[in-house]
Amino acid sequence: MRQIALFALAAALAACGGQPSDAQSRTDQSSPVTDRPLETRAANAPYQPAFPGQTRAPRRTADVAFDVETVAKGLTRPWGLAFLPDGRMLVTERPGALRIIGADGSKSAPISGLPAVDARGQGGLLDVAVGPDGWIYWTYAEPREGGNGTAVARGKLAGAAMTDVAVIWRMTPTLDSDKHFGSRLAFAPDGALFVTTGERSILPGRAQAQKLDAALGKVIRIRPDGAVPLDNPLVGKAGALPEIWSYGHRNIQSAAINPATGKLWTVEHGPLGGDELNIPLAGKDYGWPTIGYGLEYSGRPVGEGITQHAGMEQPVYYWDPVIAPSGMAFYDAELFPAWKGSLFIGGLKDRDLVRLTLDGDRVVGEERLLKDVGQRIRDVRVGPDGAVHVLTDDGRLLKLVPKKAA
Ligand SMILES: [Ca+2]
Questions:
Q1: Which of 140, 328, 352, 401 could be stapled to 368 by a disulfide with Cβ–Cβ 3.0 to 4.6 Å?
Q2: pLDDT of 35
Q3: Ligand 1 centre from 103 Cα, in Å?
Q4: Which DSSP letter does residue 179 get?
Q5: CA dihedral 392, 393, 395, 396 (to 10 degrees)
Q6: Dist. CA 277 → ligand 1 center (Å)
Q7: Catalytic residue from among 180, 249, 269, 389
């Protein structure tokens, strides 16, 4: 009955202009127009959620009017974006270049001093972050004897050069695959550095998402110099890598600290269905490949085709069909008051920007933005000016700013 009533309300709203009143949209950051899910396409997998609201949240729009400005274009397969304290930006390009983008959109030549990358497939130069210590941190697919693996390096930016460069962490074991490298960086409020990884897509890697002596398919927690924090959950456990924070992940390409709680949130790629939003907790198992909400690309079940198992954590939220996440940012700035508390996630598959409305640790609404841009969104970050910045696969750095009055 409620659904019918809300449908009638939506129809009434549509008849009088299609938008809820401004007062209504300000009461709760974003207003549900109906309780119908934003996602209307058929799911790939026949699975049911473990709890109400775990998937297909209601369409919930914030009715924010914004302009999309082009900060820079002509970037080559950009992947990661970070803001320097002086307002300039760092952008990685997957073939191996790290560039400085000026506030005026100017692009520097590649910063010298970075190690070589394996840029095949999904590899290359990946994420970049500015540490609270002022050092620059980045992830990349490191070419190695017998294959490659994700690595984390840091250095000091001195003009057009990176100096004091050191690799602070290496994902092991080395495998020969050009897929599922992770890898986002997120500094926690306590100064620890989270690094997300992937399981390399190939079957010998997939099984290692559950193995504690391998760094594939994990969230890693290290000190900025690469040392292992002594309060990590597996420190002292025989046969386990002490840098592991959580495990059972597939390919985590989005990570950010929730400013409301200080906790790490991540989004990982599922296969055919089953992209997951998780809040990875110390020492917990997030299930892959034993449980999940997607199918193999062939359409067959993954493993035994189960979604729940004792001792394995459920995702906070999942998508089927997938969004193919890349990059995420919590919105905690003042520029767009109606977006405060939202979580933005870059969408590769549907070529849009996903905005989630949260209620604590639950997803209660979903909206898709930038459909008209029509590009795969590779990273999303909030600038010091409060503008939402995104990188697109066609080489643009865009920023969303409040729509100027006519
Ligand atoms: Ca999972």
A1: 352
A2: 81
A3: 39
A4: S
A5: -10
A6: 9
A7: 180
- 399 and 68 Cβ atoms separated by less than 8 Å: yes
Q: How many residues does the chain have?
A: 406
Backbone dihedral region for residue 218 (phi beyond 0: left; psi -120 to 50: alpha; all else: beta): beta
Q: 93 forms bridges with which residues in the sheet?
A: 78, 97
Q: Rounded to whole angstroms, how far apart are CA atoms 320 and 311?
A: 24
Q: What are the backbone dihedrals phi and psi of residue 167, each rounded to the nearest 5 degrees, phi first?
A: -80, 120
Confidence (pLDDT) at 30: 55
What residue spans define the domains of the chain? 27-402
CA of 314 to the centre of ligand 1 (A): 6
> Catalytic site residue 180?
yes
Please name the CATH architecture into which domain 27-402 falls.
Answer: 6 Propeller (2.120)
Give the separation between CA 3 and CA 5, rounded to whole angstroms: 5
Q: Give the three-state DSSP class for 266.
A: strand
Q: Is the pLDDT of residue 1 over 90?
A: no
Q: Please, what sign has the CA dihedral across residues 123, 249, 274, 254? A: negative
How far apart are the C-alpha atoms of 389 and 229, rounded to whole Å? 32
Beta bridge partners of 107: 101
* pLDDT one-digit tens code per residue, 206-235: 999 999 999 999 999 999 999 999 999 999
Distance of CA 314 to the CA centre of its chain: 18
Residue type, 204: P
Cα of 307 vs centre of ligand 1, distance in Å, is: 9
| Nearest residue to 60 (alpha-carbon basis) of 117, 105, 100, 20 | 20
Looking at every residue in the chain, the average pLDDT score rounds to 92
